[in-house]
Amino acid sequence: MTVAEQTTPGRRDRKKRLTRDALTTAALRLVAEHGLENVTVEQISEAADVSARTFFNYFSSKDEALIGNPAADREVLLARLVATPAGVPALEAIRLALTETVETMQADRELWRLRLAVIDRNPALLTRLIAGNAEAERAIVEALASRLGVPPDHNHPALVAAVAGAAFRIALLRWAAEADTRPLRDLVDEAFAAVAAGLPDPRP
């Protein structure tokens, strides 16, 4: 294999990632400025300097360009959860499975702040995101039940998945609102540690 053959796939992947990021950024900025209903795929494509046909090579809809693909994100998280060593407690396994996602989000902090602001201003996007998160939580419950050797309707996997989701969401909102200047990783770790400790009351 030549050097060119070795490097071409990497270059291709980087180009695809840059195009996807450009489309997402353009979509978020346009919707933040003009509103969800006043922005078209054609406008997003033009702002990213690509064709509408190229847009649909990356996203199935305008909404997906704004909030991502919850189904794909879910599969990535589940794969990481399954790969976590069996002896790790369920709550910690979820935290570890989130590690790469958290690092990626930290690297794109401004984009994520803009995304969360756009979602907050557009209830239709929030509804879709909530639905995607609910599906992810159900899948995590099933994975945890299998991991723990208990039935899918057992309370424990459902409770762990629910509190893990709440801990992550609270850390994410603090980070996005700049209520705390620490990295997202630290906020997530702190939230999960508090849950694992039984949520002791803070001292004044």
From TrEMBL:
Keyword Protease among UniProt keywords: no
Instruction: Point out the DNA-binding stretch(es).
Output: 40-59
Q: Name one GO molecular function term.
A: DNA-binding transcription factor activity
Q: In its keyword annotation, does this UniProt entry include Transcription regulation?
A: yes
> Keywords assigned by UniProt?
DNA-binding, Transcription, Transcription regulation
Taken from the record, one Pfam family name reads TetR_N
> What InterPro entries does the annotation carry?
DNA-bd_HTH_TetR-type_CS, Homeodomain-like_sf, HTH-type_TetR-like_transc_reg, HTH_TetR, MftR_C
Q: Which segments constitute the HTH tetR-type domain?
A: 17-77
Name used for this protein in its record: Transcriptional regulator, TetR family
Task: Name the species this protein comes from.
Answer: Micromonospora echinaurantiaca
